[in-house]
Amino acid sequence: MKKNKKPKSRFRRFISKVFFLCVAFFIFCVIVNIYEVQSTKDFIYSNASDVPSKYTVLIPGAKVYTSSVSHVVNDRISAAVNLVNDGKCQVYLVSGDHGTKNYDEVNVIKNFMQKNYDADESKIFLDHAGFSTYETMYRARDVFCVSDVVIVTQKKFAPRAAYIARKLGLDAVVYEAPEIYPYARKTKFSWAIREFLARVKAFFDVTFHAKPKYLGNQIPITGDPSLSWD
After folding, report:
1. What is the rounded distance in angstroms from the CA atom of residue 20 to the CA atom of residue 133?
2. Backbone angles phi, psi at 217, to 5 degrees
């Protein structure tokens, strides 16, 4: 008699399904990344002279220290100050993480701008709840009433910043902050991995209209910046 063929075990079927889902999700992530990069390339500038004039220049927060800032933040500050000094933008919006008393990106950046770049305090607005790029753009629109903006950030982060801002209805462009000190290849590789996933998260945030952790009273960017200080 012929022996009946053994059916696939449940475990093997489970592994096959998981593998298929992983491959499908990876393909989806690749498509999202390509879409965000390609759909925003006309709104990203590497040459300051080509950047169109906007009222606000937005400096997204990143790692800071007690009285200094990381190279990433310093590059963004330098680029933003140059845009204001050249008349491309009129005011600064510094957005970052000030979720606790012990960590305050925005005030450290503001103080660093004044001390090292002689930035005019009367032009600096602070967003203390910019915990992510999405929240930064959302709050720029709904709390600070920003309509047009130049976002200064690193080249690797530019497509995601432009994608989020424009999907939220901002007339936004991105200026790729020049590297004052070149970043290591290892650093740029880690950014690439992070961005691959961050762009997917941005896609879901935009698609499902995610809400920021905090909103609060409006502080119009055309008004008094001291209302945003603490």
Report:
1. 31
2. -70, 150
